[in-house]
Amino acid sequence: RAGNAAIADRQAPVSPYVAGLPMYDWPEVRDEIDALWTAIAARLCDAGIEAPQSLSRPDRLEDLWTVPDLLLGQACGLDVVDGLRGRVEVLGSLDYGIGGCEPGDYRSVLICRADDDGDDLAAFRGGRVACNGRRSWSGHGALVSAVAPLAEDGRFFGGYVETGTHRESIRRVADRGADIAAIDAVVWPLALDHEPAVDEVRILAWTDPTPAPPLVVGWAHAHLAGVINEAVSGAVASLGPDVRRPLDLYGYRIRPGADYEVIAERLAAAEAAGYPTVA
């Protein structure tokens, strides 16, 4: 049997491409993420594209987004109007059915501890904020945009802690290591399903909607955009509730990269108001 498996491995075609869907790839839904990719890859193969059999999961997201042979990746909207501009082409965005948003859009939830008396963002002036990272739109940029009208001399919070992930930001607020955090609204239902720390926090407010994290293709393969979009649309529509429900996946919206300029515009407005970064 081992010999037969080795022969099969040698005969399996090696894809020249790389693909990854890292933005919501929690361990608890990894099987469903893989099932989504399997459905997409099958359609790409039917179209004559040698799609990779499995997803790439590098430690650093930048190592996926900047690989020259990127066939399909899910990126942060902030990056496509900044560091990835001219390196990838936006294909569209998955629709996660976020309340108060158009299909394919999303926003962030501002959370605080469940026993905190604050009833709006202004009540947290001087508090300690948790952020997954300054290169995140949903955890940092959306918060910058929300706080800018309230800031004085470029400051609003009394402390800042960087956590690395939205999940860790939820935990940090829950254990009183921070008072408030902005959490991706697609992450939030994942946390409701899988993260016990949500029992200690509550939603304070919602940020304004923007396009959800885009699916992108490397610039060298942008000519495949139409085929990839057909494959993604067909794959998402074909999935059963056993895959779609754990991912809160409702559909796919093909859209231009220009849709994401709203992110750059909001950051520029915050900077013009004297609040370029969470502080």
Automatic annotation (TrEMBL):
<protein>
    <recommendedName>
        <fullName>Phosphate ABC transporter substrate-binding protein</fullName>
    </recommendedName>
</protein>
<dbReference type="Pfam" id="PF12974">
    <property type="entry name" value="Phosphonate-bd"/>
</dbReference>
